Amino acid sequence: xxxxxxxxxxxxxxxxxxxxxxxxxxxxxxxxxxxxxxxxxxxxxxxxxxxxxxxxxxxxxxxxxxxxxxxxxxxxxxxxxxxxxxxxxxxxxxxxxxxxxxxxxxxxxxxxxxxxxxxxxxxxxxxxxxxxxxxxxxxxxxxxxxxxxxxxxxxxxxxxxxxxxxxxxxxxxxxxxxxxxxxxxxxxxxxxxxxxxxxxxxxxxxxxxxxxxxxxxxxxxxxxxxxxxxxxxxxxxxxxxxxxxxxxxxxxxxxxxxxxxxxxxxxxxxxxxxxxxxxxxxxxxxxxxxxxxxxxxxxxxxxxxxxxxxxxxxxxxxxxxxxxxxxxxxxxxxxxxxxxxxxxxxxxxxxxxxxxxxxxxxxxxxxxxxxxxxxxxxxxxxxxxxxxxxxxxxxxxxxxxxxxxxxxxxxxxxxxxxxxxxxxxxxxxxxxxxxxxxxxxxxxxxxxxxxxxxxxxxxxxxxxxxxxxxxx
Length: 472
Prior knowledge:
By secondary structure, the chain is of the alpha/beta class. It contains 13 helices and 22 strands. It has helices at residues 20-29, 44-49, 51-68, 85-109, 167-170, 187-199, 218-230, 323-337, 366-371, 387-391, 420-432, 437-442, 452-462; strands spanning 9-14, 34-38, 113-116, 118-123, 126-131, 134-145, 149-151, 164-165, 179-183, 202-206, 234-236, 239-246, 251-257, 260-266, 268-271, 275-277, 310-312, 351-353, 358-363, 376-382, 398-404, 410-417. The relative contact order is 0.11.
């Protein structure tokens, strides 16, 4: 390779994750000559080290739980359920590889040039890409930064990739831990901790605040707490980790709880206290892109940074660190860079937690709606009154709708229960289209199915519920 500058690109996308590859494809569809560069795998963290592999492990662990509890349905399973972690990981990796290959095919089919290498912004409209074969110099008209985020590390308990793990290493363990200590009771720690508990591990979750899933409606988390207890998971809240050491065979985690010092020993420790923007070492200072106080890239409602021809999307741009948000922003940025007048409109962002049971919500909670000046009415329908939930022996939880009292317009929906990760889509659509509770109540839902509680809750808003007693 030579250092001679190549022809100017229409658009350079740095980062091939959920935001970057979507932005590249959309821009190519709109006629742009696009180069997509990433030093790691196509699909980024979500596909390779996050959303997809974690949900594969969660699904496998749920299968173990179903087998172990099949007796409640009259099905006797003789012998011990054996979890072969190397085979589980191999199966999980197969799913990831299939999806990665699919992304590669889509990029190629849309005419996107993909470069495996490390990008460094040397000056305005210029980038140097270090590849295995040498360095390439490019000039570009527009730039989309989709550089993602990294696990936040505790200085007192740094990752060693052996026994003190980030979520990345926790997805590739070759054995079920005897005792997994999880630092952080947010959704990542909760999801992986729950999965390993179902595989047979003893699990202790240490959360620094007074509850798991901080920021999530307590009505939802209370259901999850019950199930954590049933799974034998120990949750210690207001637990401030002071440090810890890998002794070779185990990790000794020092923690202060209610002013008292304790040491909790486990053979593995997963540290999942959040994520930070991956904005260092790429040369942002050379092109004048401004960051906020937390290190995230500042953007406007068109994903533009403080530099007019530079856009940022996904985790590196802050806000909710969600793969589907990154993909959405990728489309917006690509369209704006192609001359369209697209803008971000987060009318209803879906949030999903793959806990046990699942949690999903969108729009406003009743408290948030009242704080914004709405007079509200709400209705909650339990899965215990849903035939399908009972028939799959998974009937804990509920669906709740929050609506504007006068118009009955749906403002928000909160769910906890079986497969709510899928059910939330109807709620998002309802809010996006300005639907009312009457619209949902008049929409015929197939019976017996899990989406019926949304219709039932809507009927509750309207004052004529069929399968629960009306509030008077």
